[in-house]
Structures are given as C-alpha cells and as structure tokens.
Sequence to fold (630 residues):
Amino acid sequence: MIRFPKSYTPRWIVFLIDLFICAVSISSAFLLRFNFEIPPEYYNSLNFIIPYVLFFRSITFLIFKTYAGIIRYSGAKDTERIFIVAVSGSVVFVIINAINYFFINGTFIIPFSIVIIDFLLTVFLMASFRLATKIVYQELYNPSKEKTDVIIYGAGQFGVITKRTLDRDAETKHKVLAFLDITNSNIGKTLEGVTIYHADYLENLLDKNTVEKLIIAKEDIGPVEKQNVIEKCLQYDISVLSVPDINTWINGELSFNQIKEIKIEDLLERPPIVLDINKIKKIILNKSVLVTGAAGSIGSEIVRQLINFNPKKIILFDQAESPLYDMELDLQEKFNFYNFEIVIGNIADEYRVKKLFEEYKPSFVYHAAAYKHVPMMEKNPTEALRTNILGSKIIADISNEFKVEQFVMVSTDKAVNPTNVMGASKRIAEIYIQALNQVSKTNFITTRFGNVLGSNGSVILRFKKQIDKGGPVTVTHPEVTRYFMTIPEACQLVLEAGAISNGGEIFIFDMGKSVKIIDLAKKMIKLSGLNIGKDIQIKYTGLRPGEKLYEELLNDLENTLPTHHSKIMIAKFRNYNFEQVQKTFEELIKLQKDHNNFEVVRKMKEIVPEFKSQNSVYEELDIEFQNHDN
Fold:
C-alpha cells in the first residue's frame, strides 16, 4: 500500500497549492458566469485578472497565515480562517472595482457576479482540499476496518471535542459508534455525522455491536448518573474512560493520552458536600493552625483545604521527612502558598511538642497523626500506646496548657466496639479528649469516620498494586464489608465539624452504604480491562489479626443527635471523670517501658470493656476477664 510520509507538508507547498486553487476558482467563476463561453473581451483580460487576483489573495494568505496549519489535522477553526481570508480578498476586489468605476475609467476590473462566484468557489475548494487530505491521511494510516467502536457519553461541547480528539489522533484506532445523552431534544439527531441516542439505549448498543470502550465526556455528570453508566459497562466487560477537567488540558487542548480510565473512586462517589464556608472562614481567618500527621493522606488534605480559609500560618508537624518535603513543594508550586512552617518531630516527644507550641502558638490544632494499620498495631501494641495514646495525650495536654481555642482529633470507626489494638488505642485517646474537655477552656472535639479511599494503606491501593502485578487479588473474607469516604470529603467534614462545635462532642459522619470488599475487588479488576478467573485470580486469605467483618460507627451505649448538616451527627456518650481517667492513663503509660504486649493489652481492655479481640492472640485475655467476672 502507498503511504504518505508522516512528516508535515512544508508551508511553501501549502501556500502554492492555495494559490493554484485561487487560480482555478477565478477561472471557473468566469466559465460559470458565461455558461462556459467567455466573451473575447473578458477572455483577453484573464491574462491580467488572474495574476491580479493571485497577488491580493497571496497578501491575505500571508497576513492570516492560512498555510501554517497542519492539513491532516484541519478542523472548524481552519475553515473559519479560510472564510475570513476569502471575504477579505473579495472585499478588496469590490473596493478596487468601485474606485476604478467612479474615479478612473467607469468600468469594473472584475464583474461583481464573478467576484461572488469566485468567493464561494475559493472557500469551497480550499476547505475541501483540507478535508480531503485529512480523510485520505486518516484512512491510509488508520483504516476504518482496523478501528474499534467506542461510544461517547455526552453530546455537548466535551463530547464534540472528544470525537475530534479521536479523529485527530491517528494512533488511537477508534471510531465513534454513537453519542449518548439524556436531553430529549438531542435524541435522534446527528453530531459530526454520528447519531445521538438516549442513555437508556446503551444496553441495546452493547448487545448489537462489539464496543471496546465508552468515554464519559460530560462536564456536569452527577455521581448517580455516572455510576449507572459504569455499572452497565462493567456487566458487558466494556472499558470506561473519562475526559478530565478542562483545567488540566495541555494548552487548553485535549489529547487522547489525557483521557484516563475510570477509577474505583468514581463508583463510590457521592454528591458533593455543601460546606458552611463563611463559618469555617470566620474561625480560621488569620489564625495559626497546627496539623499533626501533616504528611499523611488525611493531614495533608486538611492542610490543602485550610489554605482556602486564609489562615495566618499553618504548621505542618510530622516525623516523615520525605513526604513533608513533597508537601512543601506542593504548597509552593501548585498552590502558591507560603504561609506555613515545616516541623519534623514525634508527637510522643513532649519536649519537642512544647517547644513547637512556644514558638508558633497555634490557635487551632487538627490532630491527624496516628498509627492506623490494624495488623501492624496488633503485633506492636506498645507502639500503638506510645503514638496513638501517649502522643495524643501530650498534644492535648499542651494544647490545654497554651489555651488553644480548639482541638480536633481525627478518630476512626474502628474505635467503636474495638476488636483490635489499633481501634482500642484510638478509643482510649477519645476518652482522654472527652474527659479533658470537661476541665479545659479549650474546645476538644473528636471526629470519627471509616475507611478513606486512597489513603496510605488503603485496600484500594493494595488492590491496584496486585492488579498491576498480575494478581492474585487477595481478599480476607467473602463477607467482609467496609464504609468508604473520599479523602477530600472526610477532611471537609472535619473542618465543618470544628466550625459547629461547642466542645466535647464526638462527631460521626454519614458514610453512606457499606461496601462488600469482594465486590470492590471485582469491579477494580473489570475497570482494568481484565477478566476475573482468566486474566487475574481472586484469593481469600482469611481475616487478619484483629479484623472484623463489619465496621460500626457507634458503640452500644451511644446514640446520635442531628446537626444542621445532614452528613454530620453527634454521638451521645457516657461521661468520664477527668481525675480518674488521668490516673488510669498514668498506669497504662507506665507499662510502655517494659514492652510487655499482653500487659499493655490487658490494661487497654480494663479501660475499654467493650474491647473484644478477634482472630488474635489476645483473645485469651477476654476469656480471662470473662472467668474473673463469673
């Protein structure tokens, strides 16, 4: 097969071709005007008229640079430019005609009827040349028979741009089969030669055609609408891609490489949270804010969201050096924000924490630093004690000493009826925060939510790594379920809870419906374009130490009160005597130095009677407590 060279046609050749087209246009205009029998007086004048037309056309070509476009990628903008150039040249001919008639010899150089015909032919032939070149090039390098069918969901501006992107990129090997839309007025019409169908017709299209991909190219698509489309495609093993936000396009143009595969997060997405921006800004504006665990997934997102409320300074406190450095660059380069300080240290280092408060005097503290991996803490209870309990106590005590206005602790649903050391350590920290609030002028608040999508150690990240390696994807149990929330959503609710708090509350967040982890794994495999059992296997590994099948947001002795925000509730809880709690904490913390895991866990169970170990070596302590009670 003969193929065109892939290098671009030199501009001077395009310029000469355009001039040749203009010569053909003016000659054809005379032929058409005089029914192919040009009178002698006009025929003889063509020797002057053709160079005259080409001279002025060449000037307009140079001014508007019609020759500069890449012919094989011509589009609407190029046609628009051709129209403007042709109009400009024809206007020049009209003006010169008028000058010649009224001021020189009373004749027209080119009859007006021929000027009009020439204009129409010039636009038509120049646009047709570009379109024909584009079609021939695409067919030679990307034949239709070799293309696979794709469906574009969205018949608006994004949908049109997406189709043109596929047409322009000769390497994509995709042909648009149909547009889908939910706007009834568009149904049945064609867009760029492709029929628009109602979104409900998707399954019929998938049944009747071999579709490889569906691209979501709709700017204002809601989470429910998006989930319905994705779910239908997954049933047919169709890959789903999405056009990114227009702000991320390179130089304002979309390329095929920017159209990315849908993530599992899109299937768990919920309608966006509406925050009371003014109330949050009122308390944060021009205040110094300390964020512990600022290099972690939750802490770093809290920092990013705090930027929007114009704090005086944000102190980023963490012991992870490299992630803190990444945060520093991110804040400066991406957000152009410089009112922050990076402080490396451990929350369990009382001297370091006190020096930090002395130097920066924060008015607000968001305490997100914690160990959170259940199996890791099950093996290292002393470290859970040191960081999650002692570290939280030190931060809280010093916040109280320096009269911090508000202290917000980020907790977890695993603190409810804990079955593992990590959850118990967070519940014990909650108890101290609650008790301290009763004797302090600082407002101490606890926020409690479930698993966060994409956070460090998230099951989502683990599944992604396993899929990338070819499997197997490991699930602990076929019935295990979890609540999920996106990182931005969780952090927005943390800020909102802080803004509406009076102190002492435990805020719990509406996590939506719990999700079966096995269903999550299956959907992630399908979204990757792989077949379960054929391309990748799912393997059950059994519950890990301390892991339970179902998470809870409230313990048995608690119920909830509503707030002004539909996604935030206040847990009613039993009160604790601060002096008694303080004494108990001292006894627990003393056990740290001996590193006796069983003694540490035994004391935790005394403090949190509902802490019942599951699938753990510490279950024998529950039997011991039970025998003692009997």
